Amino acid sequence: MADVGEVLMSALSTIRVPKPGDRVHKDECALSFSTPESEGGLYLCMNSFLGFGSQYVDRHHARSGQRAYLHITRIRKAKKEDDSNSGSGHPPKKKPTRLAIGIEGGFDVEQDQYEEDVKVVILPDRQEVTSEDLATMPDVVRERVSLSMAGIMAADSVSHALQVQQWDGEVRQESRHAADLKQLDNGLKIPPSGWRCEVCDLQENLWMNLTDGKVLCGRRYFDGSGGNNHALLHFQETGYPLAVKLGTITPDGADVYSYDEDDMVLDSKLPEHLSHFGIDMMTMEKTERTMTELEIAVNQRVGEWEVIQESGTTLRPLFGPGLTGMKNLGNSCYLNSVMQVLFTIPDFQNKYVSNIDKIINEAPSDPTQDFKTQVAKLGYGLLSGEYSKPTTDSGNENGASEPRGDQLGIAPQMFKALIGRGHPEFSTNRQQDAQEFLLHFINMVERNCRSGPNPSEAFRFLVEERIVCQQSQKAKYTQRVDYIVQLPVPMDQATNTDELQEAERRREEGDTSAPTVRAQIPFTACMAALSEPETLTDFWSSAVQAKTTATKTTRFASFSDYLVIQIKKFTFGLDWVPKKLDVSIDVPDTLDLSALRATGQQPGEELLPEVAPPPLMTPDVEVKGILGSHGNEEDDSLYSPLLSPVLDDSTVSQLCEMGFPLEACRKAVYYTGNTGIDAAMNWIMSHMDDPDFSAPLVLPGCSSGPGTTPTESLSEEHLATIVSMGFSRDQATKALRATSNVLDRAVDWIFSHLDDLESMDVSEGGRSAAESEGGRDPPPGPRVRDGEGKYELFAFISHMGTSTMCGHYVCHIKKDQQWVIFNDQKVCASEKPPKDLGYLYFYRRVAE
C-alpha cells in the first residue's frame, strides 16, 4: 500500500476550499438518510461537497474518480441529570416565556450535544489521515488540506441554511396609527376592573377601543370559544383602528391590536392614550393572559402527542417496514402526512422504491437536484424500516438509557428543498394546505414522467359536465380531467340543529360554561350537494342566441383506481375572512359511486350548436370586425381586437381591494358575465393556480392582442428551447402564444396543460403526430384508468387549527387491517381513528 502522504499529495489537486455560494451537504447523504450520527458516519466529497453514507461512498468514488473524502462521525454526549426533568425519560421541560424559537426564554430547540470526530479518508483503500498526521506532512499538503477541512466544518450546511434557526413571534412593529391617533372627547372614564362587553356582557377576552373607549369582546375562535366578535364589528362600523386588551395592562406595556393592520402592534404613546380614559398604566396589574401567552400555550399543545391521543388512550408505538416517522422541519407536517399516504400506494412504490437501484445508478452528478432520485430516496426511507427505530435518550452519567415513544425517523430536508424550489409557498417554512401540496406534487410527477409509468394516473379521472338549456332543452357535454373530488359541506343539513342553536344562544348571553357543539353533517347530504343539478341563471344558449336558464349536472366519466375526497371545511365568511367549519361527518368505510357514472348523450337528445357567444361590448363601440358590417371575406377573425368588454367597475374594485391582480379581477367579472361579487370571487378561487391567472384579458376571437402573440413574432430561441424538452413545435408555439412569448411562463403553462396537449402527440424530431402521420387518426384523450365505482377507505389526513395557514396535520393509514396514526416522528397503533373529523380521505377500488 502506498504511503498515505504520497496518496494525499496525488489527490491534492482535487481538494477544494469551500467558497461563498458552495452547497455543503455535511448533514445528510445525497442518496439515503445517513447522517454523521448514523452507523459508519458521513463521507463528504472534498471536491463537490456532496455527502454520502458508507454504503454509497464507494459508488461515488467509482463514478467520479474523486479520492479524498472528509469522514464525519458524531456520538451524542451523555446528559447530566436535571432536576427539572419530569422523570419520564423526556428532556427537561423548561417552560417558555417568549413566543420564540432558539432565543432565550423561547421554545427550546432541544439541540443535543455531540462528540465529533473528523478525518480525511482516501479511497479506494480507505486510508485515514487525522489532524495529527497532517502535522508531519509537507507544508503544501498540510495547508491545503487543513484549509479545506476548516472551511467545510465552518460552512453552513445546506439543510442548516434552509431552516429557520431563530424565530421571535414577539417582535412587533410600531402602528402607523399610534402617533396621530384620534381620541374622542366623550368624557368616558374606564374603571380599573369589573369590565363587561357593552353588547353581550361577556367578562373575559375584552378589548377597549383607544379612539372612543368602547369595551367589547374579542374574536370567536374556530371551536366556539373566545368572544363574539363585537370589537371587530365595531371597527368595521367605525374604522377606529386600535384596541388594547384589558387585563394585560401593566407598567411595562399591554397587548395592542390594530384591526386596520391586522396584527399585534406597538403603541409608543400608550400611556397617553390610556390616561385619556382615566387609566394609569403604573398602577395596573395583569389579570388576563396576554396574546403571547395564549399563543405559547397553543403551540405547546400542538407539538404534544397528547393532543391527538384518542379519548385518553395510551397509544402503542410501532416500528418496522412501512412504519417510519418523519421529522417536522418546521411546519412541514402537511408534507409528512401527504407523502406517508402516497407511499402506501403500489403505483408510487413500484415507480420509485422498487427501481431505486436503477434510479441511483442513473442519477446525475448532483443527485440532490434530481427529482426522481430524491423521491426514490424518500420512498425507500419510509418503506425499508431501516430508520424505524426507537429513539433512546443518551445515557445519563451512570450510562443508563431509556427508549422514547418517538422514532429516529427521517428528515426530508433535500426532498422539501427540491419540491418547493421556486414555489412562493412551498419554498417557505410556513404552514400550507395539504390538498394544495398534494396537487403540487402530482404536477411535479406529471412533469417528470413524460415517458414510462406515471403513478399519478392512479388518481386521474374524467368528469363529465352536462348543461341543458331550459328553453330549447338542448344539451352540451364537456369533459375535464381531475384528481380530487371536492365535497361541499351543507351546514343547513346538520342533524343536531337544536343543540347548535342552544349553544349559540348561551354563548351570546355570555355563558362561559356553554359546551362546544360540533355540527353533525350526514355524508349522504354532502354527496347529494355534490351531485344535485346546479341552476345557471345567465347561461348563453347557442340554440336561442340569448341568455337563458340552464341546469348543470356533474358526473364521473371514469372511476380512478384511487379516489381522493376533500371535505371543503375551509371557506370564506361574509367578510371574506378565511374560516374553518367545525363539523363531524360520518364518512363511510366503503363507498359505491356507481350511480354517479356519466351516461353521455341520451338517445334522441339534441346538442347545442357549437357557436361561441358574442363578447360583452359597450353600446357606443362600433363592431368593426363582424362580417357584413365593416369586415370582408378575407378577414377570418369574427371580432375585432379593439372591442372592449363591459365590466362592472364596482365589482372589479372590490376584488382589487382584496389584493387580487387587476387583470385577474377583470377576467373574473368578464367570465362570470357581470353577475356579481360572489360569482366573480368563486371564479377567482377556482383559477388562482392557473399560470395565466394574472395575464391580461383576451376577448374571444381576437387574433392578437394582450396575452397573445402572433406566430411570426415568436422567439425562435424560445421555440427551440421548448422543443428540446421533448415537445413539438406546435405545442411550443401554443404555449408561447398563450403567455406573451415569455419563456418561463410558457414552460409552466405547457406543464400545467399536459392533458390539453395530448391531442398534439409528440413524435421523433419534435414534430407532432399530425405532421408525421397526416392526422389520419383522431387525437387521443388523456390517459385514464376506469373500473367499478366501488371503494374502501384506507387513509385520511386530519387538520387541527383555525385555517390551513396554521395548526397541525396528522394522518391515519390502514395497514394489515390495523389503523396506524402518523404524527411526524411518532407512529402508533390507533385505537379510535377519528374518521369523522378528517380533511382529505383516500379510497382504493374494491377488487371484484
- CATH class bucket of the domain at 458-596: Alpha Beta
Q: Please bin the fraction of helical residues.
A: 10-25%
Shape: globular
Assign the structural class, choosing from mainly alpha, mainly beta, alpha/beta, alpha+beta, or little secondary structure. alpha+beta
The residue-averaged pLDDT reads 79
What quaternary form is this?
single chain
Distance between the termini: 65 Å
Q: Estimate what percentage of residues fall within beta strands.
A: 15-25%
Number of strands: 32
User: Which fold name fills CATH's third level, the topology of the domain at 458-596?
Assistant: Cathepsin B, Chain A
The biggest beta sheet is recorded as: 9 strands, mixed
The CATH homologous superfamily of the domain at 458-596 is named Cysteine proteinases
Q: Please count the helical segments.
A: 23
CATH architecture grouping of the domain at 458-596 = Alpha-Beta Complex
Structure description:
By secondary structure, the chain is an alpha+beta fold. Among the domains are: 4-78 and 112-155, Zinc/RING finger domain, C3HC4 (zinc finger) (Herpes Virus-1); 458-596, Cysteine proteinases (Cathepsin B, Chain A); 649-687, Ubiquitin-associated (UBA) domain (Helicase, Ruva Protein, domain 3, Orthogonal Bundle), CATH 1.10.8.10. The chain contains 23 helices and 32 strands. The strands form eight sheets. Strands 14, 19, 23, 27, 28, 29, 30, 31 and 32 form a nine-stranded mixed sheet that branches. A six-stranded mixed sheet has the order 8-13-12-11-9-10, covered by helices on one side. The chain has a five-stranded antiparallel sheet with strand order 2-1-3-5-6. Strand 12 (256-258) and strand 13 form a beta hairpin. Helix 10 packs across helix 12, helix 17 packs across helix 18 (662-671) and helix 20 crosses helix 21 (729-738). The longest helix is centred in the first third of the chain and has 16 residues, at 139-154. It starts with a helix and ends with a strand. Mean pLDDT is 79; it is low at 82-93, 97-110, 163-170, 296-311, 394-403, 613-644, 700-712 and 759-781.
